[in-house]
Amino acid sequence: MQIYWTKINQIIEETPDVKTYLLDRPEGFEWEEGSHTHMALEGFNAGEKPNRSLIRHMSISTLPHENSIGITTRIREQCSEFKSILRNLTVGDEVAIFKTHSNVPLKREGKNVYLLSSGVGLATFRPLVLDFFNREEGVNRIHSLNVDSSNAFLFPDVFEPAPDRKFTSRFVDNRNDYYEEVKDLAADKEGLFYVVGSDEFLKQNIEVLRGEGIRPDQIMLDKREGQLPEFLQVDLTV
C-alpha cells in the first residue's frame, strides 16, 4: 500500500460548519469521479498498529484537472478526535492519503441519472456533475436532490440548475419533502439512482425506491461490492 504525504494548500469555508481542504496532488496520484480515499493525520502510523482514530474514509470532491485533492467535511462544535485535530490544521500542514477507489463512477448508459444526497454527501457528487459538464456523452440528463436541515446548501456554483446543459438541481430542508420528491423521481423506471449519506439514509432511500418499483441494479451506493448485499436485497416482494 502506497501512502502519499501531502500538504494542505487551501482551506475553504463552504458554510459555518463545512470546510473543504485542498491538498497538493502528489506525483503519480490518480483518481476518477466518485472516488473516496483514506485521509490520515500525523502520528497515525507511529505505533505497531495504525491508530484508527486518526484515519477517516473521505470522498474526493474535485476532479484531477483541478489539480488539487478536495476533501469536504462537516466539523461540528462537538466532534471526534480526528475532526478536532483537522479543525486546527492550517495551510502548509501535512496529511496522508492512501487506498483510493471509486464505487460510484458516472455510468454512461444513455439513461437519466438521479443524485440523491444528504448534507455534505453532496461532495461525492460534485465531481460527477463536473464530469458530465465536461462530457455529456452517454448520459441523458442529471437531476440532483439534496436534503439539509441547516439550509446552508453546498456548492451553489456547481449545483445551479442548468437546463440547457441537461442538468437540474433541487435543495430541500426536510426529510418529508425530500422523500416525496424521491417518489416522484422514481416514476422513471429506467433511471439510475445514486445515493450518498449515512447508512440509515441509504436504507431509507432504498426502501422508498424499491417500494416504487426501482430494481437493485439501478441503485448505486458508495459502498464496496462486498457490502452491497447488506443494503440491496435482491427481492423485497412478498
How many domains? The number is 2
Radius of gyration: 18 Å
Under the CATH scheme, which class of the largest domain? Alpha Beta
As residue ranges, the low-confidence spans are: 234-238
Number of strands: 11
Q: By CATH's scheme, which homologous superfamily of the largest domain applies?
A: Nucleotide-binding domain of ferredoxin-NADP reductase (FNR) module
* Structural category: alpha/beta
Order of helices and strands: EEEEEHEEHEEHEHEH
CATH architecture annotation name of the largest domain = 3-Layer(aba) Sandwich
Key phrases:
5 helices, Elongation Factor Tu (Ef-tu), domain 3, 2 domains, FNR_nucleotide-bd, about 240 residues, alpha/beta, 6-stranded antiparallel beta sheet, globular, Rossmann fold, FAD-bd_FR_type, Ferredoxin--NADP+ reductase, 5-stranded parallel beta sheet, Riboflavin_synthase-like_b-brl, disordered C terminus, oxidoreductase activity
Description of the structure:
With 238 residues, this protein is α/β, with parallel strands linked by helices. It has two domains: 4-102, Elongation Factor Tu (Ef-tu), domain 3 (Beta Barrel), CATH 2.40.30.10; 111-231, 3-Layer(aba) Sandwich (Rossmann fold), CATH 3.40.50. Helix content is 20%, strand content 32%. The chain has helices at residues 81-87, 122-134, 175-185, 199-211, 228-231, and strands spanning 4-15, 18-24, 35-40, 55-59, 68-74, 94-102, 111-118, 139-147, 167-172, 192-196, 219-221. The protein has a six-stranded antiparallel sheet, with no helix packed on it. Strands 9-8-7-10-11 form a five-stranded parallel sheet, with helices on both faces. Strand 10 (192-196), helix 4 and strand 11 (219-221) form a beta-alpha-beta unit. The protein is globular.
